[in-house]
Amino acid sequence: MRSRFVLLVTVALAIGLLVVGCSQAAAPAPTAAAAAPKASFPEKGKSITLIIPWAAGGPTDVGGRLLASGLEKELGVPVQVVNKEGAGSQVGISALAKAKPDGYTIGVTNLPSSITPYLDPSRLASYGRKDLQPIANHVWDPETVGVADNSPYKTLKDLVDAAKAKPEGIKAAITGLQSDNHLALLLFQKEAGIKFSVVTMEGTAQANPALLGGHVDVLFQSSGGFAPLVKGNQARLLGMMDKQESKFYPGVKTFESQGYNVSYASSRGISVPVGTPKEVVDVIAQATKKAMESDEMKKKMDEGFFLQRYMGPEEYATYWDQFEAQTKGLMDLAK
Question: Is the full-model pTM beyond 0.85?
Answer without folding.
Answer: no
